[in-house]
Amino acid sequence: MIAQRRFKLREVDVRVLEGLGLRDPRNKTKLAADLGMTRESLSYRIRRLQSHFSLFLQGNVYHTNIGLRKVFLDCEAKPGYENILYDCLKANDYWLYATQCLTVPRSLATYGIPAGKESQFQSFVDQLSSLDFTRNIVVSWSTCIHTVNATGTWFDPDSETWSFPWQSWIREVETIKEGELPYTLKEPEAYEQLADYTDIFILKELEKNCTVKLKDIARKLGISLQLLRYHYLQHVLKKQMFEGQQILADHYRGLDPQTAFVRYSFSDYPKLDRFALSLITKPFVRAIGKVYRENRLFTRVYLPNAQVREFLRALSTLVQEGLVDTYDCCIEDMSTTQRQTISYEYFKDKTWEYDPRKYEENVKMLLERSRRIVECRPSNSEISS
After folding, report:
1. For residue 23, how many other CB atoms are within 10 A of its CB?
2. Phi-psi category of residue 350: left, alpha or beta, with phi > 0 → left and psi -120 to 50 → alpha
3. What angle do CA 64, 86, 276 make, to 5 degrees?
4. Residue 4: phi, psi to the nearest 5?
5. CA distances (Å), origin 102, targets 27, 209, 378
6. Residue 291: exposed, middle, or buried by beta-carbon count in 10 A (0-12, 13-18, 19+)?
């Protein structure tokens, strides 16, 4: 019983998670005061969350203002070719997030492609489509991805347990007023490249750890802290290159959580708008994206396994009531999920270098390596002998 209580998510833990998402996690003294605790208690809670609930304090780049366009690929493979397809998706250096699905031989990947290189990226997609083991490749150019950090909106502080009031959420989608979506879900008029190399390097470091000390970044770059601080304040923050922190934690620990990728279509924009607004405060949502110039959304949701079916039932009800046009869902295989920072090494002279020939050759080399592996496997007769 003592061990169970030790690893149970407490009410104070949920408040710390919320605070880290809403305030600057760099300033622990102010955050602790806002939460009504000492700095030492806050540090202890953060260490506990990191040790027992897989807390990560990452940063999100607003790719639009550094000249990168988000695009999402959803690809199916013939059974037996799942891993080679997954590797091929990462043959393009500009991938940001990649994962496989548990339910079907399907891989998902998100990229940040330099604006103006859309046709070259389409050539990469065409190459993937031409492979005899790929099926149903869906390309979705999107807005930036809006992060939803953990909140306690569905957490009961008295019993210190999570609730899942799906009927209440359905009513909220039905009654919520149309409003303004976060800027991360708005379609930009242009993709301006506002950064220099120092800015890009800072963003790369913030993506890995949004609480990294500026003096440590300055030391890596070999520049003064004063100059580094100027770039951080006057470029990275002032020019909105940095969206803010992403607080990832296993807040459903012990409830057999699953992560799912869900796509939604809507008959008109107002319905999309209201649905998206209903999600941005929910603890089961981790990320939201909007497909460019279409009434479609995609989300990454995180739920206890027992609640996945209830969530899908709620979506079915919303479809029946005409609030959602259609949806589809796949469970992600988190053991395969990978994320990488922006490809800062290809940013030179304030321009992103994009080499389509290199990515074409990368795919060919992966295919050749896969072929050799298959040829080296012993046949059934060899095994029998």
Report:
1. 15
2. left
3. 40
4. -65, -45
5. 40, 29, 28
6. buried
Q: What pLDDT was estimated at residue 372?
A: 74
Q: Which amino acid is at 37?
A: M
Give 133-144 pLDDT, tens digit per residue: 999 999 999 999
What is the token pair recorded at 260?
């799912």
What Å distances lie between residue 140 and 13, 60, 216, 297, 324, CA to CA?
37, 20, 37, 10, 19
Own/partner contacts of 222-231, CB < 8 Å, gap of 24 or more, are 223/198, 227/198, 228/198, 228/202, 231/196, 231/198, 231/199, 231/202
The amino acid present at 94, given as its one-letter code, is: Y
Measured between alpha carbons, how far is 138 from 121 in angstroms, rounded to an integer?
Answer: 13
Burial (Cβ within 10 Å: 0-12, 13-18, ≥19) of residue 26: middle
Distance CA 363, CA 152 (A): 44
**What would the two tokens of residue 107 be?**
């891989």
- The type of residue at 81 is Y
Over its C-alpha atoms, the chain yields an Rg (Å, rounded) of: 22
Place of tokens 């003064």: 224
**C-alpha span between 98 and 336 (Å, rounded):** 8
Q: What is the pTM of this model?
A: 0.91
What gap in Å lies between CA 40 and CA 378, rounded to an integer? 60
> Which is it for strands 106-114 and 56-61: parallel, antiparallel or unpaired?
unpaired
Contact (CB, 8 A) for 349 and 196: no
Task: Work out the average pLDDT over 43-66.
Answer: 95
Helix (H) or strand (E) holding 268: none
175 phi and psi, to 5 degrees?
-110, -15
> Model confidence over 16-32: pLDDT tens digits?
999 999 988 988 999 99
Q: Is the pLDDT of residue 229 over 80?
A: yes
**What letter does residue 342 receive in the DSSP assignment?**
-
Asked if 190 contacts 57 with a C-beta cutoff of 8 angstroms, the reply is: no
Domain limits of the chain?
A: 1-53, 196-233
CA dist 141 and 63 (Å) reads: 13
H or E stretch including 234?
A: none
* CB contact set of 205 (below 8 Å; sequence gap of 6+): 212, 216, 217, 220
